[in-house]
Design a protein that fits this description.
4 domains; 5-stranded mixed β-sheet; 18 strands; 50% helix; extended; coiled coil
Length: 580
């Protein structure tokens, strides 16, 4: 039979020879031959790593799975298996399932008795020492953390990356200012606080002046961004891990700038947001809604020729913005009016929810005021009746409570006013005389308002080409399973109702129409909705210049083509005369 020696140390500075030697002697005394003893020695943490990350435990399990002759595992103490009781219990369960004996030297533990039964006493001792190993490590970690925090408060270096502008005193081991680098940091703050620089322009300026050497423009910009947002330069715990998740602990450095300067830099950075060089006031109704039928990509608007097109696939086509936007607005009018008619029901539900919230806040505020008033009465009773509390202290406590009561009453008045406002809104939406006027919706001319309405009622739209100048558009309203379909004629700028479904229903016998007792197919109707909002931008002077330039550069080619054309026309004329 064979045995495994499970040996673990936490750091590279530790040596596991002593552990291995002692449990090796135990295995020899138990009758195992030297060639049947398999050492598994690893230098790894017993608290930081999960069970599946532990190389020693994984190797032990592989050996047990591959070799059926292994029947025993030796270790020096319970903490050498792991410092976490969850892992220890998992290993114990694994060895119990595979009927593998576990022998621990300190304390003396043997998992199985000689008859093969589990030793309950040994299992209890194993559980106890597993808990002790984990508790010991938690205590050590807490002690190490307290020691580190105490040293950090004294600006003693405790390891890790040193912030730019500082160095470590070799004698005292304290963090001190590096004058050369600190001057660069102060210069960065001073220049940026003038408001004349962005991160990029300041990085370029410092690189050109030679203050930042060995940086690219990208790395210099990143360095300046981290510097201007790091609270450590104000003497607070270092905060270089995440801008939106500032650390509350870390090395504390000598102060170079004030916290107000850092906050001011953040405000300047927020105001330095890049804005587009050109500001466009055009609203394209189909923006974000139109989809390409071939690739499903979003069709974009092209301003120079007023068309929508897909940039993602080669099968894309171009269609007029004016025509598409016209049918989108026409289709949205009735849907939006219907939504407004039912909007009161949704508002009413929201107002009732807000009323319930206000009632809860009012009730809580009133209970707080009552509790503070009762507490003030108790204090007065103890001071003026029982005499167990000095009048000076009682007056101080009562004044403090009165101030709190005043603040709470202000909050209570706020909730009461909010409740009255919501009740007024609830009465307004409950009126029966409110009628949604469809014509008023159709009369809206503001492009931004119309854009918002269209995007509020529609989810997406697909455009497909049938033939030249003819397209179909399928518009999907939100929460609808079927689209609104129309046929577009881009040459005549006309829109027709799509009758594909009507014809299908007619053919299967579910829809009939008669004119003079003769059954006829459905006919699509034209929708008068075209609106020319955009006109193609044409620069006549530019076009004329281009035409003149083209004629001059291709004068000979044009003359040759004209001669060939006249020769062909002359030959055709001669041929016709001969035929006559």
């Amino acid at each position: 039979m064979k045995a495994i020696l499970l040996v673990r140390v936490s750091t590279k500075a530790q040596d596991f020879d002593e552990q291995e030697r002692e449990i090796y002697n135990m295995a020899i005394k138990d009758g195992y031959l030297p060639e049947c003893i398999i050492p598994v020695c690893e230098k790894e943490s017993g608290i930081k790593l999960a069970e599946e990350e532990r190389a020693g435990l994984n190797k032990m399990k592989e050996l047990i799975e591959e070799d059926n002759d292994i029947n025993c595992v030796y270790c020096w103490e319970v903490s050498r298996i792991a410092r976490r009781k969850k892992i220890n219990f998992s290993v114990l369960d694994y060895l119990t399932t595979h009927k593998i004996q576990l022998v621990v030297k300190n304390p003396s533990i043997r998992l199985f008795k000689d008859n093969g039964d589990i030793d309950e006493g040994a299992e209890m001792v194993f559980t106890l020492f597993s808990q002790m190993a984990e508790s010991e490590m938690r205590t050590k970690l807490a002690r190490w953390k307290r020691t580190k925090d105490a040293k950090r408060k004294e600006s003693i270096y405790t390891g890790g990356w040193i912030l730019y502008g500082y160095t470590v005193d070799e004698t005292t081991k304290k963090l001190i200012i590096d004058e050369k680098q600190a001057n660069i940091v102060k210069t960065i703050f001073a220049l940026y606080l003038t408001g004349k620089y962005s991160y990029g322009s300041l990085a370029k300026e410092l690189m050109q002046t030679g203050l930042l050497v060995g940086y690219t423009l990208l790395t210099a910009r990143k360095f300046i961004s981290l510097t201007l947002n790091n609270l450590a330069y104000a003497g607070l715990p270092s905060s270089t891990n995440k801008r939106n998740n500032v650390k509350t602990e870390g090395n504390i450095y000598p102060q170079l700038v004030t916290l107000e300067m850092i906050n001011k830099c953040k405000e300047i950075a927020k105001s330095n947001t890049n804005k587009p060089k050109k500001q466009y006031n055009n609203y394209y109704f189909g923006k974000g809604l139109l989809r390409c039928p071939y690739c499903g990509g979003i069709m974009v608007a092209k301003k120079n020729n007023n068309t929508y097109h897909c940039q993602e696939c080669t099968n894309g086509f171009w269609i007029q913005i004016n025509l598409v936007d016209s049918i989108l607005w026409h289709s949205s009018i009735a849907l939006y009016a219907t939504k407004l008619a039912h909007k009161d029901d949704e508002d009413r539900k929201q107002y009732y929810c807000q009323l319930a919230i206000c009632d809860s806040k009012i009730k809580t505020s009133e209970s707080r005021i009552k509790a503070m008033q009762e507490r003030a009465e108790v204090i007065e009773y103890k001071a003026y009746v029982e005499g167990t509390l000095s009048i000076t202290k009682a007056d101080s406590f009562i004044n403090e409570l009165n101030n709190k009561i005043d603040r709470e009453r202000k909050e209570l008045n706020k909730w009461m006013n909010d409740r009255a406002t919501i009740q007024g809104l609830l009465i307004e939406v409950s009126r029966d005389d409110k009628v949604v006027n469809l014509d008023k919706v159709a009369e809206i001319k503001d492009d931004k308002t119309r854009y918002d309405i269209i995007h509020e009622v529609f989810d997406c739209a697909f455009i497909d080409r049938i033939e030249q100048y003819k397209y179909t558009i399928s518009i999907y309203p939100k929460l609808w399973n079927h689209p609104l379909q129309y046929t577009l004629n881009t040459k005549k700028n006309t829109v027709f109702t799509d009758v594909t479904e009507d014809i299908h229903q007619h053919l299967i016998g579910k829809r009939h129409s008669f004119i003079d007792d003769i059954e006829v197919l459905p006919i699509s109707e034209e929708i008068k909705c075209y609106e020319e909002r955009f006109k193609a931008v044409r620069n006549k002077e530019k076009n004329r210049y281009y035409n003149v330039k083209y004629c001059r550069e291709h004068k000979e080619d044009n003359a040759r083509r004209q001669r060939e054309y006249r020769a062909r026309q002359k030959a055709l004329k001669v041929k016709d005369n001969q035929g006559e």
